[in-house]
User: What shape does this take?
Amino acid sequence: MLIISPSITLPESELVERFLRADGPGGQHVNRTESAVELRFDVINSPSLPEEIRIRLLARRDRRLTSEGVLVIQARRFRDQARNRDDVRERLVEVIRGVLVPPKKRVATKPTRASKERRLVGKQQRGKIKQARSRKPDLE
Assistant: This one.
């Protein structure tokens, strides 16, 4: 059981783990052990996630999310499988907790009159500088 928040928990049956060989440090031992962990979590078909959280999770532009709605997270930071397993689960919890709080609505604002005037004055000054560059000296 993976605890996300007091109201949301994910059962082990919804998490699919696959172990693969990791690259990186470890000497010859790394060629014989499958210490990297790939965790797959089916966001679309998960009965444990509330609908609004599922929608927010799917709306994220996350490259770890497949087109079928499966979140794939890999961990190969550590040399042993158990630590990578814990790491991948912690990262899944962080991703889901990141969408628990709904984003704040953007309040549309208008620029102040003074800021509009400052912008226009700046544009005029910049235009004068550019015009001065292009003028050719009068030859008499």
